[in-house]
Amino acid sequence: MKNAIVHDLWSGASEVARHQALPFTPMKPVIRAFFQTLRLVLGPVMLLKERLTQPKGVQRDAAAQVAVDLQCQSLALYQFNTCPFCIKVRQEMRRLSLPIEKRDAQHNAANRDELQQGSGATKVPCLKISQANGQVRWLQDSNAIVVYLRERFEATVN
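Above: the chain sequence. Below: its structure as tokens.
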């Protein structure tokens, strides 16, 4: 009897181990559906909040703004529309009046592939900085991007 209990415990443990080794678990679709629903509900709310709380852009004289516009041509922001960290960066871009190109890495496969190839990940927000010498720098993390933009462009504010 004792051996039967030990055998049952042992075989039960191996069942658990075999179940954990499966690549598909029954909860994956449920969890995925939950987060998709959450994004569908919260996404429009977040975009509305972004629109209602847009900061007023800084005013530069015409020559300074032209210089900033030229510098921004070497920048591109890879982002998802409803990502809260991307919204944070976009708000800072508006505050500093920066016409940086925004590239959708969520729905555009070419942008997502370029982001993956260049930065090594599909993490957003990610700022692509093309330098005059042809070098490209990829800056990830919303806080780092905001600091970079402030350091580079806040001095141009009147």
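Residues 4-14 have pLDDT under 50 and may be disordered.
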